[in-house]
Amino acid sequence: MKLRLEREEDYLEVEKLVRNSFWNIYRPGAYEHYIVHNLRNDDRFIGYLAYVIEKDDMIIGHINYSLGKISYEDGFEDAAILGPIAIDENHQNQGFGSQLIEYTLGLAEEKGIPFVFVVGDENYYSRFGFESASKYNYYLENTDSNEENPFFMIRIFDESKISNDLGIFRNPDVFNVDESEVDEFDKQFEYKEKLVQEGQLGV
Question: pLDDT at residue 203 above 70?
């Protein structure tokens, strides 16, 4: 098992991994692999945190970070967000995702990133020191700032950088995808059926 930076020759294999990992999980089909593809050429991409995990010369995991933006009443601030992260379906629940997250969070702290956001399962991410961002008055765009959003979390490395003013976090623009563009991008991959399944967003 080896953790290393993603290389250009990994791109297609990583996109296949991400596509397979997210397919029909949150929506019919997936678009996370298209985000990963576009993010690499976006100025919000944090390339030094784009890591893969290899086992037996096969990439079984991948993680990305990028910069979103916090809007305050009196200005703006860049802020890092973790994701997408993907683990091969045959290697899930074996600790590989934890290794990727722990290692790259350590690198983020070393590089002076003051805090990192993530959107996901609070029961999972809390083990890495993430806590509800609303505790510090940070909210995800288009959510209710009068309610706690437990799925929007923050991992703080430098508490002196926390303003406690109301801050609304917006994902990088590359996270907003056009479904027709995803469908066109998907033509290079093996056909997979899009299914509506219980547990998906809005289902």
Answer: no
pTM for the model stands at 0.94
81 vs 50: CA distance, rounded Å: 12
Residues paired with residue 139 on neighbouring β-strands, in sequence order:
168
Distance from the first to the final alpha carbon of the chain: 38
Each residue's pLDDT tens digit, 54-85: 999 999 999 999 999 999 999 999 999 999 99
Helices (H), ranges, the chain: 11-22, 32-39, 96-110, 122-125, 179-185
Q: Per-residue pLDDT tens for 11-44? A: 999 999 999 999 999 999 999 999 999 999 999 9
Please identify which residue in the block is written with the tokens 């916090």.
70
User: How many whole angstroms separate alpha carbon 4 and alpha carbon 107?
Assistant: 12
Distance CA 202, CA 124 (A): 22
The answer to whether residues 51 and 6 touch, using CB atoms and an 8 Å cutoff, is: yes
Q: Is 148 in contact with 137 (CB distance < 8 Å)?
A: no
